[in-house]
Amino acid sequence: MFKALLLDKDDAGFRAELKSLDDAALQAATPDADVLVAIEASTLNYKDGLAITNRGPVVRRWPMVPGIDGAGTVLESRHARWKAGDKVVLNGFGVGETHWGCLAGRAHLKGDWLVALPARFTPFDAMAIGTAGYTAMLCVMALQRHGVRPGSGDVLVTGATGGVGSVAVSLLARAGFRVVASTGKAGEEAYLRELGASEVIDRATLAAPGKPFQKERWAAAVDTLGSHTLANVCAQMRYGGAVASCGLAQGSDLALTVMPFILRGVALLGVDSVMAPLALREEAWSRLADELAPEALASIPHQIALDDAIVKAGELIDGKVRGRIVVRIG
Question: Do residues 34 and 110 lie in contact, with contact meaning Cβ atoms separated by under 8 Å?
Fold first, then answer.
């Protein structure tokens, strides 16, 4: 038996409860999986928060174990790449949405979804990074492929105290960029400067509808918010600049014109972490192991027990959480 957070929805309504499950129930719910993993740590991402609070249409089948991230040890494998004892990390692939996820003592997963846990990281470290940090690395990689370099100018990070934003600030600063962090949490300026931000601005300066073409300011940006914020960021890009877009915390709408793209050559780079191919995932995790500052791993996360995940999910969606939440399981 193992403990799991189980979500269900039927004529009686929605329920999020801690349950004791067995391997038979897990196997029955995930018959197409081929690797059984003892989950040692998971996380609470924004998508997990939406699922657990039922505030967004994340879950596509019921019942569901949430948890889009997980790290632990392989117990059994029918996949050629993995054997018992291997340390692995999982991000995305619809886990926690259409396939039972990792907020549980065990997860039955497809071997093609797994990445070897870098030797530098413990499972706790990997979940302190999680999908958020892995997405931040994908954003940095996208900007660098576009040709953005430390001498190009200021790089903006929106939603900077969130999971993606915190890791993006740290990675960019350590790579030599001058990072400007945008946040609505004035009391977190010291935290952002510790991560490497050179300047902190109020998110309100970007959050309202603005002119379609504005004064040039940013050489590049990592945007986690979408909506008016992303539109203003694009309107403020310098000639040839690039924006890595990876989130919609403010909204999925985007009201802008083509002017930044055809008059300044701005590039809007979409970054997907859920279905990214294995080679890209392995590169991202390898670079995280090489480039993420040890002090960032220490300052970004805080940990909770699985028993506390339901309450903490509500706080996450209400914007009361800084950095990353690591859920200790095994």
Answer: yes
**Residue 179 contacts residue 198 (beta carbons within 8 Å):** yes
Domain, as residue range, for 202: 131-270
Claim: this prediction has a pTM higher than 0.85: yes
In a domain, residue 229? The reply is yes
Q: Are residues 138 and 249 in the same domain?
A: yes
pLDDT at residue 205, rounded to an integer: 96
pLDDT in tens, 271-322: 999 999 999 999 999 999 999 988 888 777 789 999 999 999 999 988 888 7
Low-confidence stretches of the chain (pLDDT beneath 50): none
Q: How far is CA 128 from CA 153, 155, 164, 287, 304, in A?
A: 29, 24, 11, 15, 12
DSSP notation for 163-230: HHHHHHHHHHHHTT--EEEEES-GGGHHHHHHHT-SEEEETHHHHS---SS----EEEEEES-BHHHH
For the record, the structure tokens of 26 come out as 């897990």
Q: Measure Cα distances from 329 to 5, 63, 103, 183 in Å.
A: 11, 20, 8, 31
Pairing of strands 237-245, 218-223: parallel
**Domain CATH number, residue 211:** 3.40.50.720
Q: Which of 31, 21, 34, 30 lies closest to 114 in space, CA to CA? A: 34
Query: What is the C-alpha separation between 48 and 31, in angstroms, rounded?
Result: 23
Residue 125: inside a domain: no
Residue keyed to tokens 């109020």 = 202
In angstroms, the CA 77 to CA 75 distance is 7
Could you tell me the CA-to-CA distances from 67 to 51, 85, 220, 274 in Å, in that order? 9, 22, 31, 13
